[in-house]
Amino acid sequence: MTVGKTHGIKGGAADDLAKLGPNGNRLFFLLPPLYYKTFTKKTPQTIEQFAILVPYPEQV
Q1: Which of 16, 45, 48, 58 could bridge 26 with an S-S bond, Cβ 3.0-4.6 Å?
Q2: Where are the domains of the chain?
């Protein structure tokens, strides 16, 4: 799933994630450095949320 900087989690997401099983209640956000530094968890807080830093590619 890709989201914008201010995009929230849709209302039915928790129910959809629960269908994935006992460990399905997790969202991983792949973020560039600019957004990673200011990442805050979104509502609902019942979903485990993780930010993963994706560095910018090196310029050649």
Answers
A1: 48
A2: 1-60
